[in-house]
Amino acid sequence: MGNPARSLPTPSTQAGREGLAALLARPARAVVALDFDGTLADIVPNPEQSRAHPFVVPALSALAPRVAAVAVITGRPADTAVRYGGFAGAPGLDHLVVLGHYGAERWDAATGSVSAPAPDPGVEAVRAELPAVLEELGAGTDSGTWIEEKGGRAVAVHTRRATDPQAVFEALRVPLSALAARNGLIVEPGRLVLELRPPGMDKGVALEEYVKEAGAEAVLYAGDDLGDLAAYAAVEKLRARGVPGLLVCSGTEVPELAERADVLLPGPAAVAELLGDLAGQLIP
Questions:
Q1: CA dihedral (36, 39, 44, 45) positive or negative
Q2: What is the pLDDT of residue 259?
Q3: pTM here?
Q4: Cβ atoms of residues 196 and 185 within 8 Å
Q5: Average pLDDT, the chain
Q6: Which strands sit side by side in the sheet containing 146-149, from one edge to the other?
Q7: How far, in Å, CA of 192 to CA of 31, rounded?
Q8: Element (H, E) at 177
Q9: What distance in Å separates the CA atoms of residue 204 and residue 209, rounded to the nearest whole number?
Q10: pLDDT at 1 > cutoff 90
């Protein structure tokens, strides 16, 4: 990785080509923002076993000192993404920021601490109701569903382990949306997962605020799932305001995302390779 002689992929759109050119021309004014699961880490049946691809930290360690800022934006709790990513104490990542729970939490490598608002009471109410609701729908844990609690800030129902994961996922969308609405929450669908969380914060909001904070003049965003559509939209809005951007999609499982990407990669290993190659291109 990080081989200066290896060429970077050519973005499929003019806007993407302009975004990559701006990043290469002014790296000290560029923000690189990345989703975690499916982008830096392979999707696995048990989310607790998710870990960043082995190439990710070396690639980020090479790239981060050469750009204005690197941020990981995830639906996970910030400290969980830090642990699963192996980011704490990694060389070159002294100023890495992890925006967890779609930006509601923030971990700064410079301090090693997480800042966050108080948990939403609606999340606790849903957490208490959810097991019974799933049982009534015939989708309890015996059916292969799995409830992930996200630090009091969100609750997710995974269907990947079910006999027919997609059918269970579709069957749960409407009733879980109703449960969320009764408690002042929204449902964020993903790849065989439905997350119930407070409204008003998404990866797009988090990305826009961070780009503004960093004073960035170019941005790269990489994601893989429906939750990344908001970040894609944010990059498109930034482009309209004169901030060039590059959209990278990890995998092809979510056509809505892949169709809007400037660069399509097969998965986290290729994303890590891209990050390393970017670092190689930026070596003085």
A1: positive
A2: 97
A3: 0.85
A4: yes
A5: 94
A6: 146-149, 155-158, 193-197, 186-190
A7: 30
A8: helix 165-182
A9: 9
A10: no
